[in-house]
Amino acid sequence: MKNTLTTVQWRRRIALGLLLLLGAWGLFMALRPQPLEVDVGTARRAALRVVLEQEGRTRVRDRYVVTAPVNAYARRLALEVGQAVQRGDTLVELEPLRATALDARSRAEAQARVAAAESSLSAVEQGARAAASQAELAQAELQRVRALRLQGHVSVAAEDRAASEAERSGAAWRSAQFAVATARHEVQAARSLLSYAGSASAAAPLTVRAPVAGRVLKLMHKSEGVVASGQPLLEIGDAAALEVEVDLLSADAVRIQPGTPVVFARWGGEGALAGEVKVIEPAGFTKVSALGVEEQRVWVIVAFTSPAAQWQRLGDGYRVEASFILWERADVLQIPASALFREGDLWFVYGLSQGKAVKREVQVGQRTGLSAQVISGIEAGEQVISHPDDRVREGVRVLSR
User: Where are the domain boundaries for CATH 2.40.50.100 in the chain?
Assistant: First the structure.
């Protein structure tokens, strides 16, 4: 007797087979590696600019520090910061140094010194009168001795003694006259110290005038008082002649040169200002950064090329943000800089092809913080993976996030 399958049995076998196939398919899909979610960028042609950004500050190009030419007593300055001055205008007047004021004890000492000087003068005057009388007597005695010598009544020795006494008395009289003159000067000095202590001299003041036309930038000595020769009094300059000084790292300073264009953004006014590098100072200096690291920096001086009317509201010492344009092109094939990774001396990216990552070597040109110029290896419109991690490999299935 033959075993035959009924229709019901065939249907059951078919249903069981379908269930097994569905289960196998579900297990395969569950165990199958899932595509990685990645960030994707597109190669495109656009303008590319390589810039070096750093803060700077404005400064007046020509500054003049006015100093005191001599030791003097400066009168109070009537000028204010920002005030305009013309060449030849009076800036400050200098008087001769004033005498020192005396306190009660010093004044009493000065009065006593005057009295002592007057007494000494009286004494030397009396001595001078005595010396004058003695000189007159010695001269008269010499005349009598010479008359008697001609008559033969006295010896030659007596005449010589009389002549010597007359000479000595004359010298004593002249010395007494010098002593009187000295005593009178001492009396005058003592009286001057007492009379003029703390008062201003009557001499005409010395006027210091503006060397150029401009505005007062800084006052170093506002109130009246004693100033020393060479001491700064004030600073003037033409506030309309501005330039910008920027301190760059020495490694960045070698990348620029005189004539490099500069753009000033976020300076406080509308739009951006243009400028160009005028001077790169040849000597650097050491500066400690905010992190405590010593850095070698260089001053770079930039001149404005925008019309003065656009930046006339800027003043001396204002903050600006300078962007040095190192390289610029209008039509450049570029990709996100984050898509690049290096192996040895070569640059690579992961492109997308049919949902899989494809490793491709590229030749890179200029780079900025966000974009990189591609010379070869990628065509415009192709997609590349940004920030590829260790899971991205050749042939791995990926999915744009």
Answer: 62-98+202-237
Helix segments in 152-269, DSSP class H: 156-196, 250-253
- Residue 311 neighbours by CB under 8 Å, 6+ apart: 242, 267, 269, 273, 304
CB within 8 A of 274, min separation 6: which ones?
261, 262, 263, 264, 304, 305, 306
Q: Which two tokens stand for residue 331?
A: 């039509």
* Whether the model pTM is above 0.70: no
- Portions of the chain given CATH number 2.40.30.170: 49-58+241-400
Instruction: Quick: pLDDT tens for 360-388.
Output: 999 999 998 889 999 999 899 899 989 88
Percentage of the chain exceeding pLDDT 70: 91
Query: Average of pLDDT values for 293-309?
Result: 92
Q: Which helix (H) or strand (E) holds 370?
A: none
Name the packing angle between helices 104-151 and 156-196 (round to 10°): 160
Every domain of the chain with CATH number 1.10.287 lies at 104-196
Q: What is the DSSP string of 20-70?
A: HHHHHHHHHHHHSPPPEEEEEEE-EEEEEEEEEEEEEEEEESSEEEEE-SS
End-to-end CA distance of the chain: 66
Burial letters for 246-268: b for 16+ Cβ neighbours within 10 Å, e otherwise? bbbbeeebeebeeebbbbbeebe
d(CA 163, CA 192): 44
- Residues pairing with 342 in the sheet: 347
- ∠ Cα 279 262 374 (to 5°): 120
CA separation for the pair 93, 348 (Å, rounded): 74
CA angle 254, 255, 256 (to 5 degrees): 95
- How crowded is residue 74: how many other Cβ atoms within 10 Å of its Cβ? 22
Class of domain 62-98+202-237: mainly beta
